[in-house]
Design a protein that fits this description.
single chain, 281 residues, alpha/beta, Rossmann fold, three-stranded antiparallel β-sheet, globular
Length: 281
């Protein structure tokens, strides 16, 4: 059973501490400052900012603690289909796809010193990513989402999301966003320190239809897989094929299975992802 979360009152708001929920001590904040997030056992809310990149919204937030002179690490968080990125900053228990644990992940990342950037998929975040949809699944270069993500990289380099250390970038996402995370890993393998894939598999797979190439990029980043054993949309066996291919090539991987979860962010995701990224800082 997970350690119960501890809540403290800060400036009249109930803000979650990280000692129990994220597996590391709470950060040192500037005097009078609080976390970017507030939480109760039923809801987590984090403030966010909005940027326009290639006619799409990109939600983002920086930590309260001062960014280091060399720049902060940054996590690119890819939404799942029909789960617009504002759910990453504001979610309640009981919402679909374990949205509460995604918001807890954002809370943990911000308080651990990461900048979090959550771009919208097509149709104002109501759609999906192109990675496993024809024709982009066959010809990715210059596809709409390829152009979009390259624009995001340019915005990162220009400091649009704050003072970021471009040598410490990470990616994560669920479902369509998990496939998109794989797309980032195979298309830009040297860009990422590590990636975390929730409820998805290789970039071009779609649910049961999953063929993992015999050879993956030599510099594929270390990869954390998180999956519910009861997932009927993306069977866990498809993730296991991807992991096995990475292991054959000597790529570092870790798998976290939730035996009762379906197609959703699992309860362990916030702590496991932050710990995995921290191990590759």
């Amino acid at each position: 059973m997970r350690t119960l979360r501890v809540f403290t009152m800060l400036s009249g708001l109930a803000c979650m501490t990280l000692q129990s929920s994220c597996g590391h001590p709470a950060p040192v904040m500037p005097e009078g400052a609080t976390s970017r997030c507030e939480g109760t056992p039923s809801r987590i809310r984090c403030s966010y900012q909005v940027a326009e990149v290639r006619d799409r919204r990109v939600l983002y937030q920086t930590p309260v603690s001062p960014l280091p002179a060399q720049g902060a690490p940054l996590v690119l968080l890819f939404q799942g289909t029909g789960l617009p990125p504002f759910h990453a900053f504001d979610a309640s228990r009981g919402e679909p796809f374990g949205a509460y644990y995604q918001a807890e992940l954002v809370h943990c990342l911000l308080d651990a010193g990461y900048v979090v950037v959550a771009p919208e998929a097509h149709y104002r975040g109501r759609g999906f990513w192109d990675t496993n949809v024809l024709p982009s699944s066959v010809v990715w270069d210059d596809s709409p989402d390829d152009r979009f993500t390259r624009k995001i990289f340019g915005a990162i380099a220009r400091g649009r999301f704050g003072n970021v250390d471009a040598s410490r970038l990470y990616a994560t996402g669920i479902s369509s966003g998990g496939y998109m995370t794989s797309r980032m890993a195979i298309t830009f393998p040297t860009l990422w320190k590590a990636v975390a894939i929730q409820s998805a598999s290789y970039a071009t797979c779609v649910g049961l239809l999953c063929i993992v190439p015999a050879h993956l990029p030599d510099k594929h980043p270390p990869t954390l897989f998180l999956h519910g054993a009861q997932d009927l949309l993306v069977p866990i066996s498809t993730m296991e094929r991807y992991q096995a291919a990475l292991l054959r090539q000597g790529v570092e991987t870790k798998v976290v299975r939730d035996q009762v979860a379906g197609h959703a962010w699992i309860e362990a995701a916030p702590e496991e992802i932050v710990a995995f990224f921290d191990a590759h800082r």
